[in-house]
Amino acid sequence: MDVLGSGHEQVVFCSDPTSGLRAVIAIHSTALGPALGGTRFYPYASEDAAVADALALSRAMSYKNSLAGLDLGGGKAVIIGDPHTDKTEALLRAYGRFVESLGGRYLTACDVGTYNADLDVVARETRFAHGRSLAYGGCGDSSVLTAFGVFQGMRAAAQHRWGKPSLAGRTVGVAGVGKVGSWLVDRLVEDGADVVVTDVDAGAVERVLARHPAVDSVADTATLVRTPTDVYAPCALGRALDDETVGVLEAEIVCGGANNQLAHEGIAAELMRRGVLYAPDYLVNAGGVIQVEDERHGFSFDRAEARAAGIFDVALRVFRAADADGVSPAVAADRLAEERMASVGRLATIRLPRGR
């Protein structure tokens, strides 16, 4: 794993044998501000796999925060282990001490395998833990606005493809109905969409069907991508769009909450070649980070939701720029994010008076 050649500012390996903590904190960029990104607790097959995920996710956070208009850089942390069996107060507090040692260069929050209550524990050791419980003045479950942002991106994609910002009468396949996917299903049903779901966790599917009896389910993702749908929404783990999936995909639009959906760079071009409109994941799933960032200013759900609603306009801007330049939306989104990082980030070279 070529960490030094990855373009990241800093990668920190965290180890506390007493608590069992093994973690990696990756800071991709602080050009726009401190690096904000969640903590993923996952049983990686190897340390190399954990590092690779931290590097990819932290880079995506830089682009996500930039495109969302936030004064934040990009970072990510991964804790190696099974959150169901390895997560303890001692481990989370040891992790919090490592976050604190970075002095605010990295701000952490929730991700796969971590929840508001976990961040409350981490925050006992650091000032730089966000996405905390409402009881502690935090923003609560950030998956609520993550799903809202994905829905706004999907509405924008529908506007761009079909001329109407609605999923009413359209069939949407949602792969993964955990924290984000289940909230997304709520929005889609409310909008009048026909929804088909799948998840490796049968219980998650059962909970969605109990809430929405009209929703259909299929056995697995392989079946879902072959099912005729208008929109495919990957909302589980990354690399959901690989060559095999894209080759059989029936949908006209891909728009989901999962991070790092493209298995490799060529996937975006292949989707474009096949006439599939791809809504870049880090663009549409930015609602959660907008919610977490708002916590830093005294959380207001209404204010955060209003800002997350802006994902609709940014997505339209990306789709139109992609068409104008003859590139994929993934390339157009990258260009817009890099543009802001370069133009606003240069202000760091302008020295302010001491005390600012």
From TrEMBL:
Active site: 76
Domain of life of the organism encoding this protein: Bacteria
Gene3D superfamilies named among the record's database cross-references: Leucine Dehydrogenase, chain A, domain 1, NAD(P)-binding Rossmann-like Domain
GO biological process, any: amino acid metabolic process
Xref: SMART domains: ELFV_dehydrog
CDD domains named in the record: NAD_bind_Leu_Phe_Val_DH
Positions bound to NAD(+): 176-181
Pfam family, one: ELFV_dehydrog_N
GO MF term set: nucleotide binding; oxidoreductase activity, acting on the CH-NH2 group of donors, NAD or NADP as acceptor
Keywords: NAD, Nucleotide-binding, Oxidoreductase
Membership in a protein family: Belongs to the Glu/Leu/Phe/Val dehydrogenases family.
Protein name, as recorded: Glu/Leu/Phe/Val dehydrogenase dimerization region
